[in-house]
Amino acid sequence: MGLNKILGLKEAISIDWEMTPEYSFGTFESWGGKERLRNNSERIYYFFIDNWGETPKLFLMERGIKHAKVLAQIDAPQNLVNNCVKQQGSAVFEKNFAINKQIKEWLVANVIDADDFSKIHPLKQEKTVELLPTGLPKNTDLLPELVSIRLPDSYKDMSEEDVSELIRRYNLFDLNYNIEGTFRGYLVDNCDNLTVSDKVTGLMWQRGGLDIMSHRMMRRELKKINEQGFAGYSDWRLPTIPEALSLIAEKAGEAGTHLHRCFSPSIPFVFVNATRKTGGYWFVDFKQGSTFWASGTIPGGFTRLCRTES
């Protein structure tokens, strides 16, 4: 097939028609799933439907251990895509779907075995964004009089109702749960090019973060970071839901995230230290300015670590 050429890949690719977003989590994040991979550099390609936006869309995914890249959007007939989603049910927080038999047949006829590749639209991969000067007051500057607020900092197993109540209790901004939230911190530059601190919450934050990986691998990376003493400290941890939401601004900035420019926009959503009571992990989405949960059918997650300053 000519997919590799239009996608700029050196070798011809083979589609795994049995792979789904749900199977991919077990295969690539926990070494479970339907079969083990031969090595960490092996790549598998499959089609899936993304229904996170207003209209469901068909995409081609490249997947591997600690690797996930959406390669292209496919212009499939919208009625086929809509029917596929309808067959599987459109959950509020779980919106990546496997393709069905009808879409597979259409792909084989119109994409895989076709000479015309006009229905394939390769996606440009975002480049790593360098951190900009923070534009924040320095941690040595004279600060205004501030009221300190300590947010919950321990692990929670939470339902949607628990999350909603917690967000409203601290008046945090969330496009889904509390659009009227007015909580605001006060960030200062620690002048190390690595961290900033919030003088309201008493938290120090990574300006960057950890790249996409499974929850289990993220815990291992966190342990390594603390052993190495990132920025001179060894007590880094995953933020809780209210701690992560404390960074969110009401309006998205130039980088497209609801964050101050001191933070890297390359970390679009983060794992938080909370699981969902009936299954799944909670996330905070800096692009959407909201909280959501997922079971792992998305390819892992990012995070931004924090620590409590004494």
Structure report:
By secondary structure, the protein is of the alpha+beta class. It folds into 2 domains: 3-122, no CATH class; 156-308, no CATH class. It is 21% helix and 23% strand. The protein contains 7 helices and 15 strands. The chain has helices at residues 3-7, 21-29, 78-88, 101-112, 160-169, 215-228, 241-245, and strands at 44-50, 57-64, 67-74, 96-98, 120-122, 156-158, 187-189, 195-198, 203-206, 210-213, 269-276, 281-285, 290-294, 301-303, 306-308. The protein has a 5-stranded antiparallel sheet with strand order 4-1-2-3-5. A hairpin with a 4-residue loop joins strand 12 and strand 13. It is elongated. Residues 29-36 have low confidence and may be disordered.
Write a concise synopsis of the structure shown:
This protein has 310 residues and is α+β, with helices and mostly antiparallel strands.
Q: How are the SSEs ordered, and which strands pair?
A:
Blueprint: H1 3-7, H2 21-29, E1 44-50, E2 57-64, E3 67-74, H3 78-88, E4 96-98, H4 101-112, E5 120-122, E6 156-158, H5 160-169, E7 187-189, E8 195-198, E9 203-206, E10 210-213, H6 215-228, H7 241-245, E11 269-276, E12 281-285, E13 290-294, E14 301-303, E15 306-308
Parallel strand pairs: 6-11
Antiparallel strand pairs: 1-2, 1-4, 2-3, 3-5, 7-8, 8-9, 9-15, 10-14, 11-12, 12-13
Distance between the termini: 60 Å
| Range of strand content | 15-25%
Into how many domains do the coordinates divide? 2
Give me the number of helical elements.
7
Query: Globular, elongated, flat, extended or rod-shaped: what is the shape?
Result: elongated
Helix content: 10-25%
Please give the largest β-sheet. Answer: 5 strands, antiparallel
Mean pLDDT: 85
Query: What would you call the quaternary organization?
Result: single chain
Global Rg:
21 Å
- Taking pLDDT < 50 over at least 5 consecutive residues as the criterion, the unreliable ranges are 29-36
Strands side by side in the biggest sheet: 4-1-2-3-5
- Please trace the helix and strand order, writing H or E for each element: HHEEEHEHEEHEEEEHHEEEEE
**What structural class results from the helix and strand content?**
alpha+beta
> What is the number of beta strands?
15
